[in-house]
Amino acid sequence: MFRVWAIPLIPLLGFVYIGLLSRRLSRRAAAIVGCSTVALSFLVSLEGALQLLRGEEALTATFYTWASLGDTLVRLDYRLDALSGSMALIVSGVGFLIHLYSVGYMHGDRGFNRYFAFLNLFIFFMLTLVLSDNLLLTFVGWEGVGLCSYLLIGFWYEKSDPPPAAVKAFVVNRIGDFGFLTAMVLLLAQVGTLSISELLQSAPGAFEAWPVGALAVGLLLFLAATGKSAQVPLYVWLPDAMAGPTPVSALIHAATMVTAGVYLMARFRPILELQPQVLEVICAVGAVTALLAALIALAQRDIKRVLAYSTVSQLGYMFMGVAAGGGVAGMFHLTTHAFFKALLFLGAGSVIHAMGGEQDITKMGGLRSKTPITFWTCLVGALALAGLFPTAGFYSKDLILADVLHFGEWGRILFAMGVLTAGLTAFYTARWLMLIFFGEYRSPHHHPHESPAVMTVPLVLLAIFSFGAGWGEHAYAHFVGRVLEPPEGHVPGQVIAWASGAGIVGLLAGFLRYRSLVPGPGPAKGLARVSERKFWVDEIYDALIVRPYQFLSKVIASWVDGGLIDTALVNGSGALVRAAGRIVRPLQNGQIQVYTLAMMVGLVAALGWMLWS
Amino acid sequence: MDAVVLTGGRLLTLLVFMPSVAGALCALSRSSRAAAVWALLGSGVPLILGAAAVCGFDASAAGFQWVERVDWIPSLGISYHMGVDGVSWPLVLLTLLLTFLSLVYSIGRIQNATRLYYASFLWLETGLMGVFCALDMILFFVFWEWVLIPMYFIIGYWGGARRIYAALKFFLYTMLGSAFMLVALLVTAHLYHQATGAWSFDWADWVAIRDTIDPNLQLWLFSAFAFSFAIKVPAWPFHTWLPDAHTEAPTAGSVILAGVLLKMGAYGFLRFGLPLFPEGAVQAAPVMVGLGLAGILLGAAASYVQTDLKKLVAYSSVSHMGFVVLGIFSFTLEGAAGATIQMVNHGLSTGALFLMVGIIYERTHKRGVTDFGGLAKTMPLYATVSVILVLSSVGLPGLNGFVGEFLVIAGAMKARPLYAFVSALGVILAAVYLLSMVRKVFWGEANANLHGLSDLTWRETAVFLPLLLFIVVIGVYPAPFLEVSEGALKAILEGVAP
C-alpha cells in the first residue's frame, strides 16, 4: 500500500535521529543518515510517479485530523499528482545530490551534524509543502522551509554577515506569509474548507457573487509568493541569504524553496483565473523582477551574488510562464532551472573551495586549467542559463516567451522585457565565466585545487541534466498537462529567433568585453554604479520602512506607554491623590484648638442656617 | 483509577486547598529543606491528582463537572459552589503544572525567608485555581482578591530594586478594577432580587435572569466587569503595571504572573462577561476588539525597542493577549477556541521564556538585550531551547503558538475581514522583535566579559521538558485540546453569537 506521507516523513526521521543524538553521533553516521533518507524519499517519489504513469490520476493519503471545530475541519492530506509528483522528484533528487556534495563541502566544519539535521528538516518541510492537499499543511511546509532557510543562512552565526541576513530573510518572508495566512482564513470563511482539491472545485461557485473576494485571495496568495520566491517588492532578502553555506544556496535559495511561490501559483491557477487581472499582475511583476534583477547582476562582484540576482531574475521568468498561457511553461522552467542553477551554485562552491574562501570574482581568473571539471560543468550550466541551444534553458525559456507574446494587451511589452532580460542574462553569465575561469590567475592564494569526487560527481550529474533536460519538453508537458493546461503547438520561429539572438549577442558581448578587462577595486562609475549599488533599494527600504518603524516603536514605548499612559494617567492619578492629601492634610494637624475652632464655626454656621430658614 | 471517586467527589476542593495546607506547613517548618519537601508535595500531589483526573473529564458533556455545593451564607444565597467545564479545566491544569515547575525551579535559589517564599506560591496556587473553579460570584470574588495578596508579597519582598513601586502598582491597578467589579456584582444581585424576589449569588441563577436586565444597564454592568478583567489581561491601555511587575518579580513570580495570572482576566470575559451580560458584551464588542488589536500591534512595537529582556517578554505578552481579547470578542467558535488555547499556549511559552531570562540573569546578573552575544556557542542547549520557545511565540506552524493565532485570525475573518487583516500584521511584527532578540543574544561573537556561563543543569532541563513537550504536541496535534473546550464555548457563545 502506497502512503504518500512516507515521502516527507523519511527525512523527518533523519532529522530527529541526527538532531537528538547531535554531538554523540559521528560525522560519518550523520552523513550517511542525512543522504540516505533523502535518497529513499526520491525512490518512493519515483515509485509514486511510476504509478501515475501506469494510469492513476493521483495518490492520496490522509495523515490525521489536525483540528475539528464546529464546521471547520482541518484534515492533513497528502496528494501526489503529476504536478506535485514532479516537484517531489526535483526536491528529493536535486536534494540528494546536494546532500552528497555537502559531505565534501562541509567536511571539517564544527557544525557538520547540525548542518545535516537542518538540511533533512528542510527536505521534510519542502516535500510537505509540495505534496500537501490541505492549505494549512502547505502553510506548515511553507513556514517550515522558511525556518530552515533562516537557520541555515545563520548557520555560521559567529560571523558578522549571516545573523542580520537570516533575520532579514525571515522577516521579509513573514510579510509574504501575511498574504498566505489572510488568504487562507479568507478561503476558510468563504468556501468553508482548507482542502486544496475541494477549494479548487468549490471556490469558483463560492466567489461568484463576490468577485472582490476572489481578487483579494489571488493577490494575497501572490503576495505570499513574492516573499518566498523573491519577487518585487520582496526580493531583497535573497541576495543577502548568500551568507549561508553554498550548498544551501544551491538547494534552498536556487533549486527548491524559492520556487515554492511559482508552484503555489501553478497549483492555484483555477482560483487565480477567476479574476484575470490577477494573472496580469503576476506576469507583469515577474517581468519587472526579471529585468531589474538582471540589471543588478551586471555589476556584482561576489561569485554568489551574481547567481543570486540571476535566480531572482529567472524566478521572474517562471512567474511570467506560470501566469501567461497554461502554466506548464513556468513549471518546466522551474525544473530546468533547478538543474542548471543548482549546478552553477555548486560550481561556485567548488570554486570558493578551491580559492580558499575567496568570493570576489575580480580576484579569480584562469581557473579553467586548475579546476577543469568545475569549469566544464559550469560552462554547461552557464550556457543553459543563457538559454543557448541545445541546453535545457533554451527550451524552457522559449516556451515561456512564446506564451507571454500572446498574453493580454501588454503581451508584446512583456515579451520585449523578457527578450531584453535574456540578453542581459547572457551578458552577465559571460562576464561571470570570463572573470572566474579565463585570463590570468589573479589571487595571491597558493594553489587552487580541484574538489574531491563527492563534490564533482554531483556537478557532472547536474551538468548532464542541465544539458539534456530540454529534450524531455514534450514528455514533461504531457505529464504535467494532466493537472495544468498543456501548451498548444510549437514555439513560433520568431520567438526562437528573438530569444536566441538576444542570448548570443549577450554572450558574445560579454566574452569580448571581459576577455581582457577586469573591473578595478574601486566603486564603479556611471550607470554601472547604479547596478553595483543595486538601485539603492535596500537603502530606500531602510529609510521608508525600517527607520520609521523603529521611530514609531520608540514613540509608542516611551511617549505613549511611558509618557501618556504611565506618567500622566497612572502615576498622575497617584500624584493627584497625594496632592489632594497635601491640601487637606493641614486640617487634621492634631491641634485641639484648630478642631475646637472648626467645631465652633460649624456650630454657628449650622445654627445661623436653621434660624435663617 | 478514577481520581474523582478516589477523592470522594471532592476533587476540586482537594486540588484547590491542598496547596494552602502545604503552604501553612511550609511556613511552620523548621528548616528550608523541610519547607522544600512540603512545597514539592503541596504542588506535586495535586498535579498528579489533576493529571489522573484528565481521563475522567468528559469533553462531550455539557455543563459543569465535579460540582460541589455547600451553603455558605444561605440568607443571601451565597454558597461554596465549585465546578469546572472545558474552559476552566485546561486553566486549572496549567496552574497545577506551572506552579509545580516554578517551585522545582526555585528550590535552592532563594536565600531570604525561603519558607515563606514557598508558602506564598502555594497560597497563590489556591487562589488561582479557586478563581477558575468558583461558580458563586462571592466565592469568585474572594478568590480573585486572594490572589492579590501572595503575589503582592512575591513581587514586593523577593523582587528586584524597584519592587515596592512595582508591587504597589500591581496592587492598586487590580484593586481599582475590583472596586468596579464589586459594585456591578452587588447591582446584579439586586437585579436578581428584583426579578425573582430571592437572593442568590449563584452564577447559573444570574445567567437565567440575564434577559430581564435592560440592555443599557447590561452595558454598564459589563463595562464594570470588563474594566477589572481588562486590567488583568492586560488589555491595552490598562497594561502598564505589567512590564514593571514582570521586571521586578523573581523569576518564578514572572512565570506564574504571565503563565496564569493574566488568564484570570481572559477567563473572566468568557465565564462572566459574555454569559451574564450578553447584550452588554455585544454592544461593547467593537471597543473590546479595538483594544485587542491595539494590544497586538502596540505591544509588538513597544517590545521591539525594549532593552531589558524581561520587559521585552512582558510586552510580547501584551501582544499575545491581544489575540485572546480579539478571539473572544469575535463571537465566533473559531475565535473563542483560539483564545482559549492561546491562553494555555501563552502560559506555556511565555512562562518558559521568563524562565530562560531568569536562568541567564542568575548566572550573569545581566538582563540587557545587548549584554550577551554568541550564547549559541557557549550555552548550546540553552540556546536551542530558547529558539524553540521563540519560534512557538512567533507562531510557527507545527508549534503551539500558531494554533491559537490561526484560529483567532480565522474567527476574526468571519466576524469582519478588517479585524483579520490588522491582527495578522502582528504575526509580522512578532518575528521582528523576537528574531532581533535571538540575533543579539544568541548569535554573533561571544561576549568575552561574561563569566560563570554553564549550560542548562539537569534540573533546569527537567523543568523545560514538560513545557517543550506540550509546545510540540499541541502544535502538531491540537485536535484533542480543542475538543475539550468546544462544548463549553458553544454554550458561552449562545447569547452573543450573531
Tell me what the structure shows.
The complex is a heterodimer of chains A (613) and B (498). Chain A is mostly helical and 613 residues long. Among the domains of chain A are: 280-522, no CATH class; 542-612, no CATH class. Chain A contains 25 helices and 2 strands. A two-stranded antiparallel sheet of chain A has the order 1-2. The termini of chain A are far apart. Chain B has 498 residues and is mainly alpha-helical. Chain B has one domain. Chain B has 20 helices and 2 strands. Chain B has helices at 3-6, 11-28, 32-53, 88-106, 114-133, 137-158, 163-196, 203-208, 215-232, 241-248, 251-276, 278-304, 309-328, 333-364, 375-378, 380-394, 400-415, 417-442, 458-476, 479-493, and strands at residues 65-73, 78-84. Chain B has a two-stranded antiparallel sheet. Chain B is globular and about 75 Å long. The mean pLDDT of chain B is 93. The interface between A and B is large, with 51 and 56 residues.
Secondary-structure map:
The complex is a heterodimer of chains A (about 625) and B (about 500).
Chain A (H helix, E strand, L loop, with lengths): L5 H16 L5 H27 L5 E11 L2 E9 L1 H24 L6 H20 L3 H19 L8 H30 L4 H11 L4 H18 L8 H4 L5 H10 L4 H8 L1 H4 L3 H22 L5 H21 L4 H27 L12 H4 L1 H15 L5 H14 L5 H27 L15 H16 L4 H8 L12 H21 L13 H6 L4 H48 L7 H21 L1
Antiparallel strand pairs in A: 1-2
Chain B lengths: L2 H4 L4 H18 L3 H22 L11 E9 L4 E7 L3 H19 L7 H20 L3 H22 L4 H34 L6 H6 L6 H18 L8 H8 L2 H26 L1 H27 L4 H20 L4 H32 L10 H4 L1 H15 L5 H16 L1 H26 L15 H19 L2 H15 L5
Antiparallel strand pairs in B: 1-2
Helix pairs in contact in B: 2-3, 2-5, 3-4, 3-5, 4-5, 4-11, 4-14, 4-19, 5-6, 5-11, 6-7, 6-11, 7-9, 7-10, 9-11, 9-12, 10-13, 11-12, 11-13, 11-14, 12-13, 12-18, 13-14, 13-17, 13-18, 14-16, 14-17, 14-19, 14-20, 16-18, 17-18, 17-19
